[in-house]
Specification:
Blueprint (H helix, E strand, L loop, with lengths): L2 H6 L41 H13 L4 E5 L2 H9 L7 E5 L4 H9 L7 E5 L4 H5 L6 E7 L11 H10 L3 E5 L4 H4 L9 E5 L1 H5 L7 E5 L2 H14 L5 H11 L2 H20 L6 E3 L9 H7 L6 E5 L3 H10 L4 E2 L9 E3 L11 H7 L6 E4 L5 H17 L2
Parallel strand pairs: 2-3, 2-4, 4-5, 5-6, 10-11
Antiparallel strand pairs: 1-7, 6-7, 8-9, 9-12, 11-12
Helix pairs in contact: 2-10, 13-15
């Protein structure tokens, strides 16, 4: 089946004699058992729930994996991946990561003796030079957040496996519609399902998909042991959102291309970061490993005040963290989504303070471009 068909053609309720078209919400905490010394397929919703099971199987199929797991947030999914490590192990991560990921790596897991190091993964040779005998996990996003840098995932997989490490790829900015990291050699793909997978600003969720069964069992154990699984109702909402993934992303990406070209030619904009522009140094690499550039982009203005005013003058672009929803959003990562990055890493990663990130929604393309145009002109005029 083509991807659009795969999004909606799956068994919504395995074994249900009523054959519902939509997956029922099994809003129950526990399931009655027939015997005291053995359990049925489900016993307690933390351990397994029929609604979540349909979602997890569906996501695994969309990412070309064998097992999927859904969590209460994207950060819960990332935290679960770190449970694969032990005291003394190290993570080598790309230097351009979501602020919450940096906070977890630098301020939480270090308490358990797991140390994270950062390097620029766009230079595979220099990146590999930072691998140590204790490196057990390599972690990257592609495109990165918020500078939209494209990482060669095939090379990252080769580096990880040459050093007996796992490669985990945060695929939130692409979704399985545009990119399948497991097919490129990754061991683990994860999502903040809050973003494109849900797409409607009404669910906070995370997801992990793997191919290796032994790895799946470790993740399954951690999910149950820590109680971080997604609720039945949120699983239902996420299943519903996924059905329109292609329709939404096709619209968002098409408009994002037009907006990127508009911004690139605007006198008030200094630089546009978007791998869908042919002049981007990442253009060909993105085309080689993904089926599109996505609908998140960022730009600079050479002035923090102007950037701030653009965000505040926009009408269709709502000031908000996160991305991937049907409504367009805008923000300054340095003071919003990435404000939690530790100060020592902030200095090393060189994140432009005037960087503006926008997530393109499904509004009319002309309305969005006109809105940005007026916001830019107003921002410049009031400075």
């Amino acid at each position: 089946m083509k991807f659009a068909s795969r999004l909606v053609c799956f068994d919504p309720a395995p074994g249900d004699r009523f054959r519902p078209m939509s997956t029922p919400i099994y809003q129950t905490a526990t399931f009655e058992q027939e015997q005291t010394d053995s359990c049925g397929e489900y016993e307690y919703s933390r351990s397994g729930n029929p609604t979540r099971a349909v979602l997890e199987k569906h996501l695994a199929a969309l990412e070309n994996g064998t097992r999927g797991f859904c969590f209460s947030s994207g950060m819960a999914a990332i935290a679960t991946v770190t449970k694969l490590l032990r005291c003394g192990d190290e993570i080598l991560a790309d230097s351009d990561l979501y602020g919450g990921t940096c906070r977890l790596f630098s301020k939480v897991i270090d308490r358990g003796g797991i140390i994270a190091h950062y390097a620029d993964a766009r230079s595979p040779e220099q990146f590999e030079s930072r691998v140590t005998p204790r490196t057990r996990l390599i972690f990257a996003e592609s495109p990165t957040n918020p500078l939209m840098r494209v990482i060669d995932l095939r090379k990252m997989a080769a580096i990880a496996h040459a050093h007996d490490a796992l490669l985990c790829v945060d695929n939130s900015a692409m979704s399985p519609y545009l990119q399948n990291p497991l097919d490129l050699g990754a061991d683990i793909v994860l999502h903040s399902a809050t973003k494109f997978l849900c797409g409607h600003h009404d669910v906070t969720a995370g997801a992990i998909v793997v191919k290796d069964e032994a790895l799946a069992e470790q993740i399954c154990f951690a999910q149950n042991a820590e109680g971080s699984a997604l609720s039945p109702f949120d699983s239902f909402l996420l299943l519903r959102g996924i059905k329109t993934l292609k329709l939404r992303v096709d619209c968002q990406q098409r408009t994002a291309q037009s907006i990127a070209r508009f911004l690139a030619s605007h006198q008030g904009i200094k630089q546009v970061y978007y791998p869908g522009l042919s002049e981007s140094s990442d253009y060909e690499l993105q085309r080689s490993q993904a089926r599109g550039p996505g609908s998140v982009l960022s730009f600079t203005t050479d002035s923090v005040e102007v950037s701030k005013a653009i965000a505040e003058c926009a009408r269709f672009f709502h000031i908000a963290v996160s991305f991937g929803g049907v409504n367009s959003s805008i923000g300054l990562p340095g003071t919003m989504s990435h404000a939690s990055v530790p100060s020592e890493l902030q200095a090393a990663r060189n994140l432009p303070p005037d960087l503006v990130r926008i997530s393109v929604g499904i509004e009319d393309e002309e309305d969005l471009i006109a809105d940005l145009d007026q916001a830019i002109h107003r921002a410049i005029s009031i400075q």
